[in-house]
Amino acid sequence: MSRTRMLIAAVLVVGAVLGSAYALGRLLGTADDRQRPTAAGSPSAPPTSRPALPSPTATARPGDPEVPGTPRRLGPERGGPYGARITTGSAQLALTFDDGPDPRYTPQTLALLRRYGVKATFCLVGVNVRAHPELVRAIAADGHALCNHSWAHDVGLGSRSGATILTDLARTNQAIRAAVPGASIAYFRQPGGAWTPSVVTAARKLNMTSLHWTVDPRDWTRPGAGRITGTVTSSVFPGAIVLLHDAGGDRQGTVNALRAVLPNLTRRFRLAALPTDVPRAQPSSAQPAQAPGGPLAGPSDDTPAHPPAHS
Ligand SMILES: [Zn+2]
């Protein structure tokens, strides 16, 4: 791929992240979340906040001497908000699927992953786990990693009290383990990527690594399988974590994209579920300016979402 095309891809991805968080943040409110707890795509933000993380992509890292868009491998958990993981820590690529399980799309997703021999990571919403425990069992039975995505996809969770956050995350883990006794749940992903120190701390208390992402094709905006495929295949690099959704709305475009994404990526990379046995490498104190990632962790960009206007 030419440098020009790489640059274009970089701009598209950065734009996607900026636009997605803002757009979905405007679409969703507390009441809406309650009615459609799975409708919120991860790249959302609290309604009154700006995007929680403007540039967690593979590209355009401020201060990076390389040309924006140049594929590179980042260190493990480098640069995520408050120490959240944004790369796999190895050359392996990780696909992550948020907001499920969903009886329409999760089985299709699992079948495609099985066909290509790919293990992925599923970030599960508690209410959906409770509604479809058999799908959680199917995910675990196929060897995918499990991730806690909060009880009801509350994008404002990080601004609530520590006790409330802990209760929410623990309740979600309980539901997952009610479906899959003894399940390992090594990761937590904050809905909307609206990380705060409190939510990262709560996750750590429950032995979960906070999990962000590197590549976001904004599949939840239903751009079509072709665009999802194009963004993912042109943006990934060794170690990247790709954000996708198998629930939260019409995700047939994502499923269809997988039919092209999976053969492409499996030719170029080794895909794997995120490791569940790694030490918790997050900073001991959730200070954004102290985060090891440098540019991306800077407070100017990664200040957590402002207290959302949840009523
Ligand atoms: Zn989500």
Provide key terms for this protein.
311 residues, globular, six-stranded parallel beta sheet, binds zinc ion, TIM Barrel, 10 helices, single chain, alpha/beta
Any overview of this molecule?
With 311 residues, the protein is an alpha/beta fold. The chain has one domain (3-282): TIM Barrel (Alpha-Beta Barrel), CATH 3.20.20.370. It is 37% helix and 8% strand. The chain has a six-stranded parallel sheet. α3 packs parallel to α9 (252-268), α5 packs across α6 and α8 (225-235) packs parallel to α9. The protein is globular. The model is unreliable at 11-73 and 279-311 (pLDDT under 50). Residues 40-42, 98-99, 149, 153, 191 line the site of zinc ion.
